[in-house]
Amino acid sequence: KSGEKQKSGLVLFREKWYDYLIGVSMQQEGPDDHQIPLRRLRSMRQQTTRISPEDISRQLQYCREVAALSAARPAQPLAFVDTYGCQQNEADSERIRGYLREMGYGFTQDEEQAQIIVLNTCAIREHAEQRVLGNLGALVHVKRRHPEQIICVCGCMAQEAHVAEKIKQSFRHVDLVFGPHALWRFPEFIHTLLTQRGRVFQVAEEAGSISEGIPVVRQDRVKAWVSIMYGCNNFCSYCIVPYVRGRERSRDPQAVLAEVRELVEAGYKDITLLGQNVNSYGNDLDIGYHFPDLLEDIDKIPGEYLIRFMSSHPKDATYRLFDVMAKSSHVAKQLHLPVQSGNDRVLREMNRRYTRAQYLDLVNYAKRVMPGLVLTSDIIIGFPGETEAEAMDTVSLVEEVGFDALFTFIYSPRPGTKAAAMPDPATREEKQKWFDKLLEVQNAMSAKLHAAYVGETVRVLVDGKSDDPDYPLASRTEGNRLVRLKGDEALMGKFVDVKITGSNTWALYGEAL
Q1: 10 Å Cβ neighbour count for 280?
Q2: CB atoms inside a 10 Å sphere around CB 29
Q3: What radius of gyration do the chain's Cα atoms show?
Q4: CA-CA distance, 107 to 81, in Å (whole number)?
Q5: In 14-56, which ranges are E strands?
Q6: Is the peptide bond prior to 311 cis by the omega test (within 30 degrees of 0)?
Q7: What residues have CB less than 8 Å from 392, skipping those under 6 apart?
Q8: Which range is least confidently modeled, 156-160, 260-264, 352-356, 457-461?
Q9: What would the pLDDT profile of 94-140 be if each residue is shown by its tens digit?
Q10: Which 8-state DSSP code applies to residue 382?
Q11: Helix (H, G, I), strand (E, B) or coil at 154
Q12: Whether the predicted pLDDT of 156 surpasses 60
């Protein structure tokens, strides 16, 4: 119609295809291994909401009104933001702190001193949820001593319907619950709680949103997180993230480039681009601009800095991505490429959509164009139905690839995912035995790789203090290896050359030259 923005052929095709799948799903009866859940399809059909500048301005107005209330207090009110889980949660917490600062709050790590407590939660594993609920339960005593305190729960756990209902019924001291989609409205929620009675729950299921212009308070002056996209379309059968983070949606390239440029100009040295699957960046923009293009444009920004990114999905990783990494002067020669399993049947059940052979082809090409590449991965042991032989296929893959380090987990069922309903005959004791074998192999490999550095000189970024009194500084190589070193605190935030004098399974040790 006149005045309406035309949709591209790809967008129209995608919408028609989702409509078709919804129709098929509604007609089918009984379970089907390849059937996509109806609620998933409906959420895929939903369109991303782009929060307008006017909406963000309204939230900033709420900030000013809350700041006026804060100014009337005898002392500056304080807030405590406690973050669980992944780097994306860390980035979200930086935006929550940005809003809190605009509302006149300072920050504390002491729950007793805080007028606002925010628990930014993770739902990726059962242990993370139980830890949050335990800490949340303990806050009832703090709230009893400070009845005016506002307690908030946000993040991925809050977006799970059963968790939100549990908090509503069993944790009456919690005032505010909101999911990742509603973060941009945080000042509005706080304003409501300060000016009206009652509790606020904002956890409606939706495709997700993109919002620009939210203030940020970063935790570090050396490292920074930059979210380039949100959500996930992959629906790995063990993972709850697509249900709580919504559909994949990419930020505008110019907004990302502007943020990275500002960080470089402010002196940040180590910048990590974030997304549930950064390799899908740009697919929803329909402008022919994808993740390798973004890396190429970021690399053109002048300055002394490193660019990292996570996470990558092997099904979307390409030779072109690795070629761009190889020729870039700022992109770290480090790749985190989660494989999860080394057995093709298990990979199919996980809905990973690649094979062992395809994964090996990718990593072999990446190593060929980037000699010295530091390669890390994620592994799940004990997926439902996995046998010992299949678990040992994963161990053999680890030996064949020669990963520098692994993030390893024993499978944790997530309610609402397909895997949670799968038969799981293996005992916890059996899974622990397979897991221990994996750790034994990887730890020996990591120790050997680290030992080869002894006597070498490497360039590192000094990014913090170490907990080792003999090596008081912590630093990272381009490959993100931890180097504990001797040197003056004046080196903090600088790139320096370090002579490696020792190593163990988890770290290198050295002296600044």
Answers
A1: 22
A2: 5
A3: 24
A4: 8
A5: 49-50
A6: yes
A7: 434, 437
A8: 156-160
A9: 999 999 999 999 999 999 999 999 999 998 888 888 889 999 999 99
A10: S
A11: strand
A12: yes
Give which of 124, 122, 103, 261 is closest to 186, Cα–Cα.
103
Q: Are 202 and 189 in contact (CB under 8 A)?
A: yes
Query: Would you say 286 and 280 are in contact if contact means Cβ atoms under 8 Å apart?
Result: no
Return the residue matching tokens 């859940």: 37
Pairing of β 405-410 and β 482-486: unpaired
Supply φ then ψ for residue 428, to 5 degrees.
-60, -35
Tell me the CB-side half-sphere exposure of residue 250, using CA atoms within 13 A: 21
Q: Which of 488, 248, 236 is nearest to 339 (CA)?
A: 236
H or E element that contains 171: none
286 is written with which tokens? Answer: 């329909």
Residue 499, amino acid: K
HSE toward the beta carbon, residue 494, CA cutoff 13 A = 12
Give me the amino acid identity at 374: V
Find out whether 240 and 278 touch, Cβ atoms under 8 Å.
no
338 CA to centre of own chain? 13
Using a 10 angstrom Cβ sphere, with 0-12 exposed, 13-18 middle and 19 or more buried, the burial of residue 20 is exposed
Rounded CA-CA distance 464/222 in Å is 9
Closest CA to 359 of 346, 63, 372, 166: 346
pTM for the complete prediction?
0.88
CB 291 within 8 A of CB 251: no
Tokens 């291994």, located at residue: 33
